[in-house]
Amino acid sequence: MGTSVFYFVAALSVIFSLMVIFSKNPVHSVLYLIVTFFTLTVHYILLNAQFLAVVNFIVYMGAIMVLFLFVLMLLNLNKENEPLKSNLVKVVGVIAGCCLVVTIIGSLKATAISDPVLLKNPNLGLVKNLGKELFGPYMLPFELSSVLLLTAMVGAVLLTKKEKV
Amino acid sequence: MENITQGLQGVPLNHYIWLSAIIFTIGVIGVLTRRNAIVIFMSVELMLNAVNLLLTAFSVHNNDPSGQVFVFFIMALAAAEVAVGLSIIVMVYRNTQSIDINVLNRLKW
């Protein structure tokens, strides 16, 4: 047992996120993305960030993915208007991504931090602790994010209105 | 719950950084290679989630709840971004009958 659960879930999340970008059908991409988010929820549970795990489960897997699926069904994409991608762009994109990951990991090697992640305070990710933090020092950003959500809602309604306003 | 998660701790911090870097890079590759606007949006979501996971790992590592608060803010931001972005995609589809981003290349001039 021990840390092997982390490596198993990590391998699952990498595999499913690869399948998100390489599957041909966009509906399959959305479904694989839901599975990827579920593995990330498992990661949050392993880190004992229970509040984030529940929020990730409800907001991402519930709300955002339903929005994606809904738009995908609404647009009614057929096979013939599914855009084809050239092989050159694919190869160049994969090479550029590999360069990015090599750069990040190489720069990480130079810093050489490798302490194990240990939970010092078991109450760290619980709602009580995070709520105190959220309504204490982060009161203003929290209220501003509500304004942001209201703005996004008004903007989305305005953008999708058919007639001119 | 505590006993279960306590037994599963002890993964090196480097491995969390590697996992996040790999998932982030997969998102970058998706943005670079796909031409379907919705799949590009999903790749952006992948990148946001990689950053979220890394922030949570650092938060646990440094015993600081601020990181998890920031993850919460990023989730609120992602919800707003997805709502506006998908409505833009619906509008583009209504005008051009396609969600191929190469149709939008007349934004270049």
Mean pLDDT of chain A: 84
Count structural domains of chain A: 2
**CATH fold category name of the largest domain in chain A:** Four Helix Bundle (Hemerythrin (Met), subunit A)
Tell me how many strands of chain A there are: 0
Q: Quick one: CATH class of the largest domain in chain A?
A: Mainly Alpha
Residues in β-strands, percent of chain A: under 5%
Compute the number of strand runs of chain B: 0
Are there runs of chain A of 5+ residues with pLDDT below 50, and where?
none
Using only CA atoms, what is the Rg of chain A?
A: 21 Å
| Sheet/helix structural class of chain B | mainly alpha
What does this structure look like?
The complex is a heterodimer of chains A (165) and B (109). Chain A is an all-alpha fold and 165 residues long. Chain A folds into two domains: 4-122, Up-down Bundle (Four Helix Bundle (Hemerythrin (Met), subunit A)); 126-165. In chain A, 74% of the residues lie in helices and 0% in strands. Chain A starts with a helix and ends in a 5-residue tail after the last helix. With 109 residues, chain B is mainly α. Chain B has a domain at 36-99. Chain B has four helices and no strands. In chain B, α2 packs antiparallel against α3 (37-62) and α3 (37-62) packs antiparallel against α4. The chains are: A mainly alpha (165), B mainly alpha (109). At the A-B interface, α1, α2, α3, α4 and α5 of A face α1, α2, α3 and α4 of B.
